Amino acid sequence: xxxxxxxxxxxxxxxxxxxxxxxxxxxxxxxxxxxxxxxxxxxxxxxxxxxxxxxxxxxxxxxxxxxxxxxxxxxxxxxxxxxxxxxxxxxxxxxxxxxxxxxxxxxxxxxxxxxxxxxxxxxxxxxxxxxxxxxxxxxxxxxxxxxxxxxxxxxxxxxxxxxxxxxxxxxxxxxxxxxxxxxxxxxxxxxxxxxxxxxxxxxxxxxxxxxxxxxxx
Length: 217
Known about the structure:
Elements: E1 11-17, E2 31-37, H1 51-56, H2 62-97, H3 104-126, H4 137-163, H5 170-184, H6 188-194, H7 198-216
Antiparallel strand pairs: 1-2
Helix pairs in contact: 3-4, 4-7, 5-6
């Protein structure tokens, strides 16, 4: 509110109240006197959608091609979201019908994998070193609950996968890496580079095996 209605070049001062969840902890929840100078005022305007603009955005086929591509991506996302929700509902039903105790070591292993995956995702978005990304107590409690659910799911899916001879082949791994590259807007070689250790490759293979078993269910 302090800056609303001011012109470029204006210098203003006044009290500003910062929210409790402000990103800068030093000012969170405080009311402080702030001085500011407006260097410039800018606005974003969407250009008229033309074949030239579509080409500049790397869409083939002009405006029609761009609209078709965007529509296809939206439909793919919607289908995948519905598929993932169906998988989650299925697992909840199966776990509810088959109560089992999970070794604590398995939960800890699942928690470590979940934390590592989230750290990697944030690192890809922010450029941070994954090892520097931490979680607060509330986030850790949520992650532990998810890890226990994942551990129970893993035991059940492992049993079903073996019984029904579900397997993961190299083509499945290649397809998954392509999907990850597209979803995260990253170069395929970068994604492959992340899975350059046998441990990470085995983790990916295990996740794919669970996905294929879920699809069978």
